[in-house]
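Input chain follows. Return structure tokens only.
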Amino acid sequence: MSTAELNGVREVAVGNYGRGFSSRLLSVDVFRGMLVAGMLLVDYPGDENAGYWWIRHAHWNGWTPADFIFPSFLFLVGVSIVLSFSARLQRGETRGHIALHAAKRSVILFALGLFLNGVPEFHLATWRIEGVVQRIAICYFVAGVLFLWTDVRGLVIAAVVCLLGYWALMRLVPVPGMGLPGRDIPVLAPDRNLVDWIDRALFSGRLYNQTRDPEGVLSTIPAIATALAGVLTGLWLRSGRSARAKAAGMLAAGAVGLAVGATWDRWFPINKNVWTSSFVVFTAGFALAFLAVLYWAIEIRGSRGRWTMPFLVFGMNAIVGFCFDELLWVPLYYIHTKAADGSASTLQQYLNGLLLKFASPANASLVMAIVTVLFCWALMWLLYRRRIFVKI
């Protein structure tokens, strides 16, 4: 698709919709719901070390299916920006008004992330500043502003600058006190890369992994490119092309992204921990291809109903899902029980121990994770049934 065609797509997206315009796509909501369910599944195994590889994040370089969840969610943030902002522009709202609302929403999201980081003890000296919700807030605002005030060429340039600029910083800038990556220190060595060094300099004592943080300051730059990939996809979805052409285009672009990301991995490894540029391209390729399949099944074939409803329960209340994900660990880790021998264990260890009487360590861990997902789904279903959807 040429740049001229993409720019034409953007003009349609922000200006010329009729009464049939909708700011939602069921396939996007279903995809989002799948990601929330996957997030809970990955974050609450009975025993992470004993769990199956596909529900554990890669330790450092490389990837597992679990590593697709967060970047796919950020990708959908970008898609939703186009769907939502376009509808508001069509209703006559100004770009400035929409941007102000986006800024307020980002501040609230960032504050929510800080609050969730502090639960339950709120230790000021060790309160983590960075986090998943905080990264979403920043990427949402930056991608939203770029959508409002740049054309497609500008969006593509911004994404490329984020990816190549980040690559240059990580490969060509010496890490203070350690040296140049690839010459004095290994490329992307844990704790010995620019992302980790900056986070320790800014937030010492407040990092998720003590010496580094998976939502680092510098690595938010390529994460913005993930959201911009979603913005470009949203523009494609709101174009005047046929539904089948849209699905085919996303599938083809997804295949290219997967291939380019896998190839780039040779020189700049796929790594979620520091959100490498190859990771962005690879995971965006997956998100595009997966969304294409859902779009074809739901929007084109009309396959919906019983199988989509369970995911919509999560997808229509993603903020609540994130809160459950961040808060559920409190009772699981803070409530302690005593075993027959008098030893103390957390509630999660106790429940996993019960499951070990009937299943292997890997299966016990998986069952614990599935039960957690179903428990959260049941609570969110109550909101869904009453048509209560929490928005910020």
